[in-house]
Write a structure and sequence with these properties.
The complex is a heterodimer of chains A (about 250) and B (about 375). Chain A is of the alpha/beta class. In chain A, about 40% of the residues lie in helices and about 25% in strands. Chain A has a 6-stranded mixed β-sheet, sandwiched between helices. In chain A, strands 2-1-4-5 form a 4-stranded antiparallel β-sheet, covered by helices on one side. Classes of the chains: A alpha/beta (about 250), B mainly alpha (about 375). Chains A and B meet through helix 2, strand 6 and helix 3 of A and helix 12 and helix 13 of B.
C-alpha cells in the first residue's frame, strides 16, 4: 500500500494515564471513503483529529500525503492546507459573514485574490444549496445550514482529504438529511478521500468503501459496509450494532 | 395533535400599557414601605434641587470683576471661571501663545473623533494620526516656523491631560494585548515574564509607580543622563494601564470556545493570523465594557501626575483657586474641571455602547 494517502503506523496516544489510542494501524487509499463508528469514548474522534494534528500522537507514525507529522509547525500547516475538517459543532466564525468565513482560508493561507476566493466560495455555496445566505452571519442560520457552510468552508481550500467529526450529531433530526445529502453528493461527484466519524448507518451503506469499528482505543473490525452490517464478526461489534440499530 | 393546531387561533399578547397612574401605582406606591420611600425621596429632592438651581444659576454671578462683588451675590461665582479659564485650561503656558495649545487640543479631539467613525477606518488613518501628532508637537514645542520654543514643563491644563491620556491608551492597548497573549503562551519563558510583569505592576498603586519613575529612576540612571519628567510620567501611566488591559483581554480570550481555535487550525492559519482574524476580534468584542472602564479610569488617573509636579487640568484648577485675589471659589473651580472630565468620560462610554451595538452579529448566547 505504498500509494496510501494516509498511513497510521502503530499509533498510540494517552490522555494522562488514559490510553486512548492503542496500536492503530490504518492505510487509506486516495479517493477511498471510510466510515468510522464505535461507542462513545472509543477514540474514533481522537484518531481522525490526529490526522490534522488537532491532537498530538505520542508514539508511532502518521504520514499524510507523503509528509510525516512531527512538531515542525511548517509541516503541520502544510498538511492542514490539504486536509479539510468538518466539526460536530460547526466551528464557524460568528463575527464573520458566511462569505467571509469561506474566503478567509483561501485569501490568507492560499494567498488567493479576494475576487477569486469569493467566486470559489459562491461556487461551493451553490453546491451546498445556500448561495442566498452568503451575506448573513452564522448565528442567523439554522444548524443544518451552518453545517453546510462549514462543509463549503473546507471545500474552498480544495483539500485532498476531508475529515468529518460527527457532522450530524449536534443537529436537530429534521436537518440531518440535508447535511447527509450534501456529503453523499460530495462523495459521489468529487472522488475526494473522506474519513467520516458517524453513526448514520444509511450513509455508511450508501457511500462507504470500508467501515471501521473502534472500541476502547482499538480498531476491532473493518469490512465493506454490507459485510460489516450483515455479518459482523466480533462480539463487541455485534453488541454495538444491536444497540444502535434497535 | 393535528386537531389542536387546526383550532389554535393567534391571540394578541396581553396589554402592557397601563397609563401614568397605573405606572405610579405599580412602581411608586405598590406597598406601604414603597410609599414611604417615595415620599421620603420626593421630600429630599424638594429640599435639594431648588437650592442647587438657585446657587448654580439664579443667584450666580457671571460678570463680576472682583471677588468681593462676586461673594455678595450669594450664588455661584462663575465670573471666577471666566476670569481664570485660561489658567485652568492651559496652565502656565505663555499667555500670549495660548492659541497654540488651544489649536493642539482641537486637533487632538478632532483626530480622536474621526478615529471613532467607521468611515475613517482606512489604511490612511495611520498617516492622518502621524500628521496630527506632528502638528500637535510643533504647536506645543514650537521652535520652528517662527513659533517661540516652549519647554514642556510649562505645558499644562487640558492639552496636557489629553496628551497623557491619548498616548497612554494608544500605547497601553497594544502592549496589554501582547502581555495577554504572552500570559497564555505555551512558551514557559514568555509566560513567566508576562505573569511577573502583570502581577508586579498590579500589586502597586499608580501613585507609587509615578513616584518611582520621578524619584527613584534618576538615581539608577548614569550621571548626566536624564529622561524628561513628562515622558517618565507617561511611561508609568502606560505600564500601569497595560497590566490591567492584559488581564481584561485575557478574560476575553478565555471566553472564546476551543472550537474557534480548532476551526482556524483546520484551515491552516498561522498563530498570528488566527489571533488577528479569529480570536482577538471576538475576544475584544466581549471585553469592550471592562476595557472602556480601564480607558476611562486611565483618563481620570492622569490627574495623579500632580504629585510629581506636572501641571495637568487638576493642578491648574488648584493653582487658580490659590490666587489670593480670588480666594474661596474652589467649589466653582472643581465643578468646572469635573464637568470637563465628565464630558470626555461620558463620550467614551456612549461611544463604546454604540460600538457594541454595531458589532453585534446575532450570535450572542
Amino acid at each position: 500500500m505504498s500509494e496510501a494517502i494516509i498511513r497510521l503506523e502503530n499509533v498510540n496516544k494517552w490522555y494522562g494515564q488514559f490510553h486512548v489510542l492503542r496500536n492503530i494501524n490504518l492505510n487509506v487509499a486516495p479517493s477511498e471513503r471510510i466510515v468510522i463508528c464505535g461507542p462513545s469514548g472509543s477514540g474514533k474522534s481522537t484518531m481522525i483529529r490526529c490526522i490534522n494534528r488537532l491532537e498530538e500522537h505520542q508514539q508511532g507514525n502518521i504520514i499524510v500525503d507523503g509528509v510525516e507529522l512531527t512538531n515542525d509547525l511548517k509541516q503541520i500547516e502544510a498538511i492542514r492546507r490539504d486536509v479539510g475538517m468538518v466539526f460536530q459543532h460547526f466551528n464557524l466564525f460568528p463575527h464573520l459573514t458566511v462569505l467571509e468565513n469561506l474566503t478567509l482560508g483561501p485569501v490568507w493561507v492560499l494567498k488567493k485574490s479576494k475576487a477569486e476566493a469569493e467566486a470559489t466560495a459562491m461556487k461551493y455555496l451553490e453546491r451546498v444549496r445556500i448561495p442566498d445566505q452568503a451575506l448573513k452571519y452564522p448565528g442567523q442560520l439554522s444548524g443544518g445550514q451552518q453545517q453546510r457552510v462549514a462543509i463549503a468552508r473546507s471545500l474552498c481550500m480544495s483539500p485532498k482529504i476531508m475529515l468529518f467529526d460527527e457532522p450530524t450529531s449536534a443537529l436537530d433530526p429534521e436537518m440531518v438529511k440535508e447535511v447527509l445529502d450534501v456529503m453523499v453528493r460530495l462523495a459521489e461527484e468529487s472522488g475526494m478521500t473522506m474519513l467520516c466519524v458517524t453513526h448514520e448507518m444509511g450513509f455508511a451503506r450508501k457511500v462507504a468503501d470500508r467501515v471501521i469499528f473502534m472500541d476502547k482505543g482499538e480498531i476491532i473490525e473493518e469490512n465493506t459496509p454490507d459485510a460489516f452490517f450483515d455479518n459482523p464478526q466480533n462480539e463487541r461489534t455485534k453488541l454495538f450494532l444491536s444497540q444502535i440499530l434497535h | 395533535m393535528n386537531q389542536a393546531t387546526a383550532t389554535a387561533t393567534e391571540l394578541p399578547p396581553p396589554r402592557v400599557h397601563q397609563g401614568a397612574i397605573g405606572w405610579m401605582r405599580a412602581s411608586l406606591f405598590s406597598s406601604p414601605l414603597n410609599t414611604l420611600l417615595t415620599l421620603l425621596v420626593a421630600w429630599l429632592l424638594l429640599m435639594v434641587i431648588p437650592a442647587m438651581v438657585e446657587w448654580l444659576f439664579i443667584r450666580a454671578d457671571f460678570s463680576a470683576t472682583t471677588a468681593q462683588e462676586c461673594r455678595a451675590s450669594g450664588g455661584a461665582c462663575w465670573a471666577f471661571i471666566v476670569e481664570k479659564h485660561r489658567l485652568i485650561l492651559f496652565g502656565v503656558y505663555p499667555y500670549d501663545e495660548q492659541w497654540r495649545p488651544l489649536l493642539a487640543t482641537i486637533i487632538l479631539i478632532a483626530i480622536i473623533v474621526c478615529s471613532c467613525m467607521r468611515r475613517f477606518w482606512k489604511p490612511w488613518l495611520g498617516l492622518l494620526w502621524i500628521a496630527a501628532l506632528t502638528l500637535v508637537g510643533i504647536l506645543m514645542w514650537g521652535g520652528v516656523f517662527g513659533l517661540t520654543h516652549v519647554e514642556n514643563d510649562r505645558w499644562g491644563g487640558l492639552p496636557l491631560t489629553l496628551i497623557l491620556a491619548t498616548f497612554g491608551i494608544a500605547a497601553a492597548f497594544p502592549f496589554g494585548l501582547l502581555l495577554a497573549l504572552g500570559r497564555r503562551s505555551h512558551m514557559p519563558a514568555v509566560k513567566a515574564v508576562c505573569v511577573i510583569y502583570i502581577e508586579l505592576i498590579r500589586g502597586v498603586p499608580l501613585i507609587s509607580l509615578l513616584f518611582m519613575s520621578s524619584v527613584m529612576l534618576p538615581l539608577f540612571l548614569p550621571e548626566g543622563f536624564s529622561i524628561d519628567k513628562l515622558l517618565r510620567a507617561q511611561i508609568a501611566l502606560i505600564m500601569f494601564a497595560a497590566a490591567y488591559i492584559a488581564e481584561t483581554v485575557r478574560g476575553g480570550l478565555q471566553a472564546i470556545p476551543a472550537g474557534q481555535y480548532e476551526g482556524a487550525d483546520s484551515l491552516g492559519l498561522s498563530y498570528w493570523q488566527q489571533m488577528r482574524k479569529i480570536i482577538l476580534p471576538q475576544a475584544l468584542k466581549v471585553v469592550i465594557p471592562p476595557l472602556v472602564g480601564i480607558f476611562i479610569s486611565l483618563f481620570k488617573d492622569t490627574s495623579l501626575v500632580v504629585i510629581i509636579g506636572i501641571f495637568d487640568l487638576t493642578q491648574a484648577a488648584k493653582t487658580a483657586v490659590a490666587d489670593a485675589a480670588w480666594r474661596g471659589f474652589s467649589a466653582e473651580a472643581y465643578l468646572f474641571i469635573a464637568f470637563i472630565y465628565f464630558i470626555f468620560c461620558f463620550s467614551i462610554s456612549r461611544y463604546s455602547q454604540s460600538l457594541e451595538r454595531h458589532l453585534q452579529t446575532g450570535h450572542q448566547r
